[in-house]
Amino acid sequence: MFGQGDLLLIGGVILLLFGPGKIPELMKGLGKGMKEFKKAQSDIEDEFKKIVDAPEETGKPKETITTKTEQSDSSTLKS
User: Fold this and answer.
1) Which of 22, 44, 56, 58 matches a 20 to 30 Å C-alpha distance to 30?
2) What is the predicted pLDDT for the residue at 20?
3) 70 occurs within a structural domain
4) Which domain holds residue 29?
C-alpha cells in the first residue's frame, strides 16, 4: 500500500507540523483510542454471541403480532 519513501514523507510532514515534543503525546492518544475502539468492538461481538447462543425461554407463550389488515380480515370473517 505505502512504500518506504511515502512513509518517510508522511513522517517528515508530521514532524514539521507538530514538532518532536508533541509526537509522543499524539501516539499515546492514538493508542488509547484504538484500545477503546477494539474493546467496544469485542463487547458488541460478545453481546451478539450471547443473543445468538442463548437458549429460548420455555414456559412463556410467544406473543403474535397482528397487523391492521390481519385484524380487519378476521373481523370480516366473523361477520
Assistant:
1) 44
2) 87
3) no
4) 23-52
